[in-house]
């Protein structure tokens, strides 16, 4: 993936995660978690694996449970962003 593709992917992933807001705290409350998930996205292509990372990251920080199905749903969207970024010419 080129640098431009990576930047576009990261921006889109950050935007999606900010909109997700699993604990309804507002988009400014997840900077660390967003950074961790976007970093993990670089090396993960399996939505279930990414969902587990998302679940563990957010639950560790906020000590609140997130249903795995919610994490899978957002992970599919993140993986789609990743593969879409790879197709940008």
From TrEMBL:
<protein>
    <recommendedName>
        <fullName>DUF1871 domain-containing protein</fullName>
    </recommendedName>
</protein>
<dbReference type="Pfam" id="PF08958">
    <property type="entry name" value="DUF1871"/>
</dbReference>
<dbReference type="InterPro" id="IPR023162">
    <property type="entry name" value="Apc36109-like_dom_sf"/>
</dbReference>
<dbReference type="InterPro" id="IPR015053">
    <property type="entry name" value="DUF1871"/>
</dbReference>
